[in-house]
Amino acid sequence: MSDETQTSGATERDYDYHTGPVTLRGSRVPASTTDQRLLDSGGSSEWLHTDPWRVMRIQSEFVEGFGALAELGPAVSVFGSARTKPGTPFYDMGTQVGRRLVEAGYAVITGGGPGAMEAANKGARDAGGASVGLGIELPFEQGLNEYVNLGVNFRYFFARKTMFVKYAQGFIVLPGGFGTLDELFEAVTLVQTQKVTSFPIVLMGTEYWGGLFDWLRSTVLDAGTVSRKDVDLLHLTDDVDEAVRIVTDAEEPVDPKYPE
């Protein structure tokens, strides 16, 4: 009795075919083995663009990121606009933030790009600290800025975002646009939903972020879509020393006998 049948022009095999954890039957059974296809020097290169191969690339990004940052020590992620120009008040603020964080014993992690990210990296490097840049593949980005002394480039945003959160004791957010807002609200959501251990989130620039705070504390809070506790996860200041102090104070354990 044959182990193959003909169905609508396709050959079906009457046995189970195991490829790793996957079981295939009937017309799903391939005509060649995985090893055979691996060792075959001919054929299309379309496999480079398949989802299983992407999984391997994603895995490699996590491995590289974890390996590069695992021994970094205490760090703070600093977000901000790539469009911030050198010599502007926001750029100078970013430089001060980077410098003061290093002086307080932290490495500085940014997206590695220009603007506010470059400013924070510059302050960190000039202060003799670890200046980390987590770059991302974008059609309009120029690569890591010159002040990064530890850089990792990513293809995938979600792998990069994991590194921002995993290795940081807090976030300091400089004025920025959609990318900065995305990073800010993702961080708040992770803390709010207790997906990460609570850590401080400080926004620098009361005039820039004031409208957002007013909207959250009025329209959003009044609508009941967030709680007062959620809004209080965010801190707003113009004072660099206060921003760093908020981060350092959050690391100090509270004696359970004498809670604040």
From TrEMBL:
Single GO biological process annotation from the record: cytokinin biosynthetic process
Top-rank EC class of the record's enzyme: hydrolase
Pfam families per the UniProt record, alphabetical: Lysine_decarbox
Annotated catalysed reactions: 9-ribosyl-trans-zeatin 5'-phosphate + H2O = trans-zeatin + D-ribose 5-phosphate; N(6)-(dimethylallyl)adenosine 5'-phosphate + H2O = N(6)-dimethylallyladenine + D-ribose 5-phosphate
Keywords tagged on the record: Cytokinin biosynthesis, Hydrolase
Compositional bias (Polar residues): 1-10
Disordered: annotated segments: 1-44
Molecular function terms, GO-annotated: hydrolase activity
Top-level taxon of the source organism: Bacteria
Enzyme Commission number(s) from the entry: 3.2.2.n1
GO cellular component: cytosol
Similarity annotation: Belongs to the LOG family.
NCBIfam families in the record: Rossman fold protein, TIGR00730 family
Protein name per its UniProtKB record: Cytokinin riboside 5'-monophosphate phosphoribohydrolase
